């Protein structure tokens, strides 16, 4: 498909800009490469799959890449850039992706289910940020569940975060091994955290086993599994601001994007507040990026489809950090 440029109303203070209206998009991971902003979203479709608690109705099949040279300017659609039929190990459900770069090599990270119904995380490589991406023959060894997100740290190291509970299957793992009998911790036990591992120089393999990221409350105690207003559910994202690492995530069934701060990409992180209040639709997802001197929050909602939760639309709005480095809560307009 040839690039398709579309202009929608710009970002204005206190409002959000819809990025594209010619397709449904969700789970936006925004990245800046060589002065251009690229958005790697899920491409929502109505595949006619009945809704269930594991999210089978999120039956996405491919990815598009959107690009902008100005947050208020035209949006170009470069997709489709990867289809599930071209991924040897994947069967269905191309969920929230992300991308990273090393030199002239760009890697798209994506979760998908195998024919056996297990979510794994794959990598696909291109010589351009807009693909087309060639998938690796196998999923990334040691990575599983959903929602990959990459931190490109200031020292050149890259870290892969991943995981999501319930339909994302993270609660089924112990020591990196899937077990059908495993489940979430009891409400008074520490909540499950996302996983993190440093990536190898090829960016398509883990350089070490993943470890769990711990999120602490204000007393230095790990958040509890029953603390649904704050505990990690899915959609981890890490950005750096004023020398600190900010981890943000979705709380799932309480529909918030929260964040915590720390001094290492591995954590621990201390809970700091709400980034985004609930949006129309069950899921909420996001990314945070600095572009052209502005901090931007990308997110999605289901308002354009009248609340159909698997037909979402990516939006962008301004994000502010105060002089203490705290994020001001965004309430979508
Ligand atoms: O888009 C499918 C899934 O819904 C994503 O992987 C989650 O983060 C949630 O947005």
Automatic annotation (TrEMBL):
Biological process terms in GO annotation: xylan catabolic process
Domain of life: Bacteria
Keywords noted in UniProt: Carbohydrate metabolism, Glycosidase, Hydrolase, Polysaccharide degradation, Xylan degradation
The keyword Hydrolase is annotated on this UniProt entry: yes
Record carries keyword Zinc-finger: no
Molecular-function GO terms, alphabetical: hydrolase activity, hydrolyzing O-glycosyl compounds
Site residues (Important for catalytic activity, responsible for pKa modulation of the active site Glu and correct orientation of both the proton donor and substrate), renumbered to this chain: 147
Pfam families with a match to the protein in the record: Glyco_hydro_43
InterPro entries, A to Z: Glyco_hydro_43, Glyco_hydro_beta-prop_sf, Glycosyl_Hydrlase_43_Enz
Family the entry assigns: Belongs to the glycosyl hydrolase 43 family.
UniProt name for this protein: Alpha-N-arabinofuranosidase
Provenance organism: Cellulomonas aerilata
Gene name linked to the record: xsa
